[in-house]
Amino acid sequence: MGIADADLHRNAEAYIAQCDALLFGRVTYEMMLAAWRLPVSWPMPDWMMPFAKTIDAAKKHVVSSSLKEVDWNAELVRGDLGTFVQQLKQQPGKGIGVGGVQLAMALTELGLIDEYQFVVHPRIIGRGPTLFAGLSKMVDLKLVGREEFGSGAVAMRYEVKR
């Protein structure tokens, strides 16, 4: 559970804006759809609107075997995940953003993630999904960026060492 502030939303908005598309698992897609599809059904502070507009407009791909259809500028991904992502990566563009714990794990196992961004929040909650639990191999990373926010959160960007 993150601590929402204007700086974190600016960081997330900039991340999404530099992606050609977002790749979500079903759980993340449904959560983001419920929270950010415009117009939102909750009283949003003005400083959240740039993020909301950016994610609302972003092209999305949703990996799910249980969903029958998707909308919100999204396409359902069926078939082999590795083949789909490899084909997506071969297209010209800036990059693909990934959201979802299980999806990030699957793509890490396939060696298809080139860069990770981890945001560490100054809060210990003691529950929730564990990133990369059960990963079959180590992945060595190189720190390529770091940003501290007023909330105390820190975003760190890492490239995969090849």
Please describe the structure with a list of short key phrases separated by commas or semicolons.
Dihydrofolate Reductase, subunit A, 162 residues, 3-stranded antiparallel sheet, 5 helices, alpha/beta
Could you characterize what this model shows?
- This protein is an alpha/beta fold and 162 residues long.
- The chain is 31% helix and 23% strand.
- The protein has one domain: Dihydrofolate Reductase, subunit A (3-Layer(aba) Sandwich).
- The strands form two sheets. It has a four-stranded parallel β-sheet with strand order 3-2-1-4. Strands 5-7-6 form a three-stranded antiparallel β-sheet, with no helix packed on it.
- A hairpin with a 5-residue loop joins β6 (141-148) and β7.
- It is globular and about 40 Å long.
Set out the fold topology.
Elements: H1 6-17, E1 21-25, H2 26-36, H3 49-57, E2 60-63, E3 74-77, H4 81-90, E4 96-99, H5 101-109, E5 115-120, E6 141-148, E7 154-160
Parallel strand pairs: 1-2, 1-4, 2-3
Antiparallel strand pairs: 5-7, 6-7
